[in-house]
Design brief:
Elements: H1 3-14, H2 16-55, E1 60-63, H3 67-75, E2 79-92, E3 101-107, H4 109-114, E4 119-122, E5 130-134, H5 135-139, E6 149-159, E7 178-179, E8 182-183, E9 185-201, E10 213-219, E11 232-237, H6 244-254, E12 262-264, H7 266-271, H8 278-313, H9 315-323, H10 328-371, H11 384-410, H12 414-419, H13 428-431, H14 435-441, H15 443-454, H16 456-491, E13 498-502, H17 509-519, E14 525-540, H18 547-550, E15 559-560, E16 563-573, H19 575-584, E17 596-600, E18 602-607, E19 612-617, E20 626-634, E21 641-655, E22 669-675, H20 676-684, E23 694-699, H21 702-710, E24 718-722, H22 724-766, H23 768-776, H24 781-818, E25 822-823, H25 830-853, H26 860-865
Parallel strand pairs: 3-10, 5-9, 16-22, 17-21, 19-25
Antiparallel strand pairs: 1-11, 1-12, 2-3, 2-11, 4-9, 5-10, 6-9, 7-8, 13-23, 13-24, 14-16, 14-20, 14-23, 15-16, 17-22, 18-19, 20-21
Helix pairs in contact: 1-10, 2-8, 2-10, 2-11, 2-22, 8-11, 8-16, 8-22, 8-24, 10-11, 14-15, 15-24, 16-22, 16-24, 16-25, 22-25, 24-25
Length: 869
């Protein structure tokens, strides 16, 4: 070890406080990088496991392959394993209910693994004449056990309703059709099967809550391909990448497999961040790149401040090295050597702190999810690759942070060090302050301003620290909000838990009112609403037509002499519900007269033509504008369509969200919330018929609420649809994303605060001699505190002057990156900006006062003689 490095180590030991502060700063930075990488991997792992649990572990499938094609798929270099599935069909099950069948199908051994078949008792089937029964089937009262023989008449389901007449067989994803208590479907092409029960399994993933049959699972082997045509081949690939979307169709074409026989498991592939949508991938990786850059910038700023202040404080020591013949290279390398020493200490501790922090976080997150009745297990995932990348990025960050201070250190001469002329600028022009400052705020403010100008480099380092903290907080906050908004736009999450309607489709109003009155007293029920809808056509003036419809390729098809045609849906609420809905949207209920309605103008929907999720205004309308409700008439002789005016609907208010219920927004659909009287008047003037009345319920315990409803006598006359089970994954992901978002913002906020405290406290510590000098010439404690307060204000104003425009620029960059997949207007988060402005002044003031409190009792003479901190 050369003499310069030895002196550097000695200097680090002598300045223990500054060295410790630098090490802590680097540990925080490394922990942040490690935490973000680990949390990202853990989140992806959860999404992958959840998707596999819900869809099975397969990446693409083929239908109706012959033996030769199957062998080619099996030997394909992208195939890891193959699941074979054959749906035998449905067999009638005695008793009444929403599941009137037993669903019989076959899987091979790989299929049972890929589709998460979990054995409960006995063993899995190994022959085609063996079956296992779903535990839910046994719980329904099915009187069979292991060892019993079962004889079944298995066939295909066909609907008897006029609407579905002529359609093909129904599958397990289509619920049973019941009308007036009678099953409106039949089994055809039935065959007799005899099975031996060899075990029971947990409820499988294809036994949806709405599925018509309980599962009975048998075995299949490759030989079946010679006799059966409807076997589906599910492939688990060993190459999960975007190359699948090009390679598989080409492979299929070479094997004479029709493209319609191929299906990709997009849900699982997207969980691995693999999608054929280039815009979506550009959005994902673009946002990842932006957030990594933001984190690196924050880390560089945090560590750079420590090194910059270190070099400033070490100017005498660097000058001493120059006086004894040290070269520029040796002085520069002394800073890099210091960086390496700090890296060796800080990086392992930072990685450990990051992993420990995320481990503790996930422990509490899992507890929160468990209390919310979500069966989710967030696991800590830390690969060697991710930790290696974190270590490399951290080391590069430290070296980048040390670069500018190292260059500056190499230029320190012995004369500069003795004069201390690099940091302190004493020329009259440099420190001149505007006379108004003294007149308005007093001499303390003038001294504060001159202090900042004299200590220009330290002042800039502190301001830079504040700017980076502002940019970090606002950018990460906007990034997190963008993630949440993007998820909400594409998840299409329902805003209710249970829907109940008449089993006949019409009537049932009294029964629904009885249910609503009965459950409103339940503690777990948060809200209920009951209404009916009616669909018809609408005509608006051309100048009112919104961009969504005018930008369509076939926009001219909607334009006629009468105006622009829209589809229109009325939602008729009773007076109390309408008043509540109006107040939710900031609309005065007293302003809504008969013949008026609230237009839901702010909507979001998937636009297949653009390949985006769009959030926009449907009409370019204002309160007071009107829309014509019309009846569409078709002339069979001429083939022309005309619209007959039914009523004029005046817009009493504009809303940005729907009431509880099922709605499907699109560019050419208008949704009006009206009173029941208004809908009744329209109904009298048209041939259109309103839909049946539906009751929607929001509840904290959907299962308990449904059980309560089913105990009522009127329940047998109602269709009850519980959305809880197939909305559960979205709810889980929403909660997890919220925890991730707020946790991320909290992490960045804490780091930003630590950054500011670190920079200001170190800066103040380095100015102890300066402050001692001021006290020695008679500055009173009151005047000193006032000076410090003004310095805090100047720090805050300067940092906000630069930090806010930069933050808005970064926000727009993030917003612009999302527009490959989502389309919505850019809005500045004023609340976050207000929080940032307030936080800057509070944190700076507290940091300054805290730092000053540490030195207020310093002995003036001892402080003036002190060299190290």
């Amino acid at each position: 070890m050369n003499i310069v490095n030895k002196v550097t180590i000695r200097h680090l030991k002598e300045n223990k406080r500054r060295t410790l502060v630098t090490i802590i700063g680097v540990i925080i930075s490394v922990a942040m990088i490690t935490a973000v990488a680990t949390l990202g991997l853990s989140f992806l792992d959860l999404n992958q496991r959840q998707t596999i649990e819900n869809t099975g572990e397969w990446h693409y499938s083929y239908n109706d392959l012959n033996e030769e094609q199957y062998q080619a798929v099996k030997d394909h270099d992208k195939t890891e394993s193959i699941a074979l599935m054959n749906e035998l069909g449905f067999a009638p099950l005695e008793g009444e209910g929403s599941k009137p069948y037993v669903y019989v199908h076959q899987l091979n051994k790989a299929g049972m693994d890929q589709f998460q078949v979990k054995l409960q008792d006995g063993r899995l089937p190994k022959k085609p004449n063996e079956v296992v029964l779903s535990e839910v089937l046994l719980q329904s009262g099915y009187d069979k056990e292991i060892g019993d023989t079962i004889h079944l008449e298995v066939g295909k389901r066909y609907s008897l309703s006029e609407e579905m007449a002529g359609e093909g067989p129904l599958n397990q994803n289509t619920s049973a059709s019941v009308a007036e208590g009678e099953l409106e479907e039949e089994l055809r092409n039935t065959e007799e099967y005899t099975f031996t029960v060899v075990g029971t399994i947990e409820e499988p993933l294809w036994d949806y809550s709405w599925a018509p049959g309980y599962s009975m699972l048998s075995y299949i082997d490759e030989d079946i391909l010679a006799t059966e045509e409807n076997v589906t081949v599910f492939v688990k690939s060993n190459d999960i990448s975007t190359s699948l979307f090009d390679a598989i169709p080409v492979f299929a074409k070479n094997q004479n497999i029709d493209q319609n026989q191929i299906e990709f498991n997009y849900n699982l592939l997207e969980a691995y961040v693999v999608s054929p949508n280039e815009g979506a991938m550009t959005t994902v990786f673009g946002l990842i790149a932006i957030i990594i850059v933001i984190i690196m910038i924050g880390s560089v700023a945090l560590i750079y401040n420590a090194f910059a202040i270190s070099v400033s404080e070490r100017s005498r020591y660097l000058g001493m090295l120059s006086s004894i013949g040290a070269t520029k290279r040796q002085k520069r390398n002394s800073v890099f050597f210091e960086g390496i020493i700090i890296s060796l200490i800080s990086i392992p501790l930072g990685v450990g702190a990051g992993l420990l922090g995320i481990g503790i976080t996930l422990y509490f997150v899992n507890r929160i999810l468990s209390e919310a009745q979500f069966d989710v297990d967030l696991q800590l995932i830390a690969s060697f690759g991710s930790i290696g990348i974190a270590v490399v990025i951290s080391f590069i960050t430290i070296m980048i942070s040390a670069y500018i201070p190292a260059i500056r250190a190499s230029k320190v001469t012995a004369i500069d060090a003795i004069r201390q002329s690099k940091d302190i600028k004493l020329t009259k022009k440099k420190v001149k302050a505007n006379p108004l400052v003294r007149k308005i705020f007093g001499y303390e403010a003038e001294i504060a301003l001159k202090n900042l100008k004299r200590n220009k480099k330290r002042y800039n380092v502190t301001v830079l620290s504040l700017i980076v903290s502002i940019v970090l907080f606002l950018s990460v906050g906007y990034f997190s909000n963008t993630m949440t908004k993007s998820f909400e736009l594409q998840s299409n999450q329902l805003n209710y838990d249970i829907a109940a309607s008449s089993s006949t489709g019409y009537g049932g109003v009294e029964e629904l009112k009885q249910v609503m009155d009965n459950i409103q007293g339940l503690q777990e029920v948060n809200n209920t609403i009951m209404y009916q809808k009616m669909n018809m056509s609408g005509i608006v003036k051309e100048e009112m037509a919104g961009e969504p419809i005018t930008s369509l390729e076939n926009a001219s098809d909607y334009i006629s002499d009468q105006g622009v045609q829209y589809f229109m849906q009325f939602i008729a609420l009773d007076d109390k519900a309408l008043q509540d809905y109006a107040e939710e949207n900031g609309i005065s209920y007293s302003d809504i007269d008969e013949g008026e309605g609230i237009l839901i103008n702010h909507v979001s929907y998937p636009d297949d033509n653009q390949g985006k999720y769009v959030e926009t205004e449907v009409l370019d309308a204002e309160v007071g504008d009107s829309v014509i409700a019309a009846q569409e008439n078709y002339d069979e002789e001429t083939g022309e369509v005309s619209f007959e005016r039914v009523s004029q609907i005046d817009i009493a208010g504009l809303a940005d969200h729907f009431p509880m219920g099922n709605f499907y927004p699109s560019p050419d659909t208008l949704f009006f919330v009206v009173s029941e009287k208004t809908l009744a008047n329209i109904d009298e003037q048209t041939d259109y018929q309103p839909d049946g009345m539906t009751l929607y319920i929001q509840t904290e315990d959907p299962v308990s609420t449904q059980e309560h409803i089913e105990e009522l006598e009127v329940a047998s006359e109602l269709n009850i649809a519980n959305q809880y089970f197939y909305e559960q994954q979205d709810r889980q992901m929403t909660l997890i994303l919220s925890i991730f978002v707020y946790g991320f913002i909290t992490l960045i906020t804490l780091i930003s605060v630590a950054n500011i405290f670190n920079t200001i406290s170190t800066s103040v510590a380095l100015r102890r001699r300066e402050f001692a000098t001021m006290k020695s010439i008679g500055m009173t404690p009151k005047a000193f505190r006032k000076m410090i307060q003004f310095e805090s204000v100047f720090y805050g104003l300067k940092s906000l002057l630069y930090g806010l425009p930069i933050s808005i620029g970064v926000m727009y960059l993030i917003y612009n990156q999302t527009q490959n997949t989502f389309s919505y207007s850019f809005s500045i988060p004023w609340i976050n900006i207000a929080i940032a402005i307030l936080a800057v002044f509070v944190i700076v003031s507290v940091a300054m006062l805290y730092s000053i409190s540490k030195i207020k009792d310093d002995n003036i003479i001892e402080t003036l003689r002190q060299e190290n901190i």
